[in-house]
Amino acid sequence: MAGAVLPFEAPVVTLLERVRELRQLAATDASLAAELAALEESTSQVARELFNQLSPIQKVQLSRHPQRPYTLDYVQHLFTDWVELHGDRRFSDDRSIVAGLATFRGRSVALVGHQKGRTTKENVLRNFGMPHPEGYRKAIRVYELADRFRLPLLTFIDTPGAYPGIGAEERGQSEAIGACLASLSNVSSPVIATIIGEGGSGGALALGLANRVLMLEFGCYSVISPEGCAAILWKDGSRSSEAAERLKITAPDLLSFGIVDEVLDEPAGGAHQDPPRMAQRLGDAIQRHLDALVPLSPEQVREDRYKKFRAIGAFASS
User: Fold this and answer.
1) Which residues have C-beta within 8 Å of that of residue 15, sequence separation ≥ 6?
2) How many helices (H) and strands (E) in the chain?
3) Greater model confidence, 153 or 48
4) How do strand 80-85 and strand 97-104 relate by DSSP bridges?
5) DSSP assignment letter at 199
6) Is pLDDT above 90 for 261?
7) Are residues 232 and 137 in the same domain?
8) Apex CA 214: angle with CA 125 and CA 126, to 5°?
9) Residues 46 and 193 reside in one and the same domain
């Protein structure tokens, strides 16, 4: 796959390129099938061994990979009848959050997700995936639609955090995030959130108050970025690797804490190496959780969500 290659993933990328080349040849020469299967198996094994040894900061780097699938990529692979809704009916349309209605494997659903760009022009349009208040208020519009029509709500989290600029603060950034949390807590239909990349601070949590929180294997989810944490604690942003280790922001730690409910394995080399396969795995997981949640009554759905978040954390009394 063309694009940026992180230093630690270079050996796997080289093998995956060979797999793709052989796959193309095998499509017209059946005698190469056995060789292709052997190469795919060895590549998968090498990738698993290498990526099992990644440090937390390397996983953070993978979660930010510019070729990683974004929300609209999953929309393309998993949904039909997609109708995007624009604007918050107060100020403007924030393109760093996409929201709308779609059909997911025969079910009508509502959808909200962060959206980054890949080119400079796209990133300026999407504000590098950092929403303004109007983005969160657009999300609330869709939350309320999901509640009114009892549509399952699917959210996709992938943001460094809410935009910290003066204009955003003037328009009520913290209030907009708080209103998102209040709105999500009252949605009567099932909510499934998926951390598809990086989940930063309240900017991510505004889409994360869900009945089930799924997380891709190389995603991250934290109250602050490792760089920001290092700058605040030690006045030294170069200690971001140490901060990532201490923050416990990777999928295995978050699963052990009960913050996420399921971690989805990524294809060899990460989700960006095989987006269709990653989308298939994600779709299967979403369907499995929807099948369990949809039969619940509105009261049971809200109670399920409440109990999930009340159970997070540990308390001790003297």
Assistant:
1) 39, 42, 43, 46, 47
2) 14, 8
3) 153
4) antiparallel
5) E
6) yes
7) yes
8) 0
9) no
pLDDT band for position 1 (cuts 50, 70, 90):
very low
Q: What φ, ψ does residue 42 adopt, rounded to 5°? A: -65, -35
Coil/strand/helix, residue 4: coil
Of 51, 72, 45, 44, which is closest to residue 197 (Cα–Cα)? Answer: 72
Which pLDDT value is given to residue 43? Answer: 83
| β partners of residue 154 | 111, 192
- Taking only the tens place, the pLDDT of each residue in 23-49 is 888 777 777 788 888 888 888 888 888
Residue 57 has pLDDT above 90, yes or no: yes
Is there a single domain that holds both residue 46 and residue 164? no
Query: 49 is in which domain, residue-wise?
Result: 8-53
- 2 inside domain: no
Residue 49 included in any domain: yes
Is 316 domain-assigned? Answer: no
Residues 6+ apart with CB under 8 A from 21: none
Q: Identify the three-state secondary structure at position 114.
A: strand
Do 171 and 38 belong together in one domain?
A: no
**Bridge-partner residues for 99, per DSSP?**
85, 112
Q: Which two tokens stand for residue 298?
A: 């509105």
Please determine, for residue 120, whether its predicted confidence score (pLDDT) is greater than 80: yes
Please indicate, yes or no, if residue 3 is contained in any of the structural domains. Answer: no
Residues 24 and 72 in one domain: no
Q: In Å, how far are 60, 65, 70, 260, 285 from 216, measured between CA atoms?
A: 12, 13, 12, 10, 11
Q: Are residues 65 and 81 in the same domain?
A: yes
